[in-house]
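Fold it.
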Amino acid sequence: MASNIDEAQGVNTAGPYKPDNEERDEYYFGIAGKPRLVARTSHNRWSRPVHEGASNTQRRKQYAPVLESEQPEITSKWTQDLTPALIEALNGCNWCSFFPIRIGFEDTPFDEFPTVLLVTVEKDSLQWEEGVAIALGCRKVIRDFEIANVEVEIREDS
């Protein structure tokens, strides 16, 4: 069921899907440490992103900060109330950290990077089935705080 904030902003709320091995291993291509995707709430199908032209090499991802001047709707709500609610939603997994961050391709302007709540977990500690349930719980918390257009990604570091 879509939250009111999603409906008001026209957010597509189709369900997430289980990533195949290639997506699991290559989703964060370019990020140091070769993290692996466990689960994400986005409904968008992934395909290997490549540079157009002669090189035909895979595009690298990179992070950018969530800046208060650009996204006050996120930074102003990252409060003492939101953090405990997210910790409660993360109950049942061996999380290491969680934080809002922008993630996109190296050849894209930072202001076009989507913002995600990135959750890191211990290696081999979480399967997709449990991970997607936890990610959806975190997204519900975010929506309950009236923060729209932020999906949740859970990754494990190698």
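The chain has a mean pLDDT of 88.
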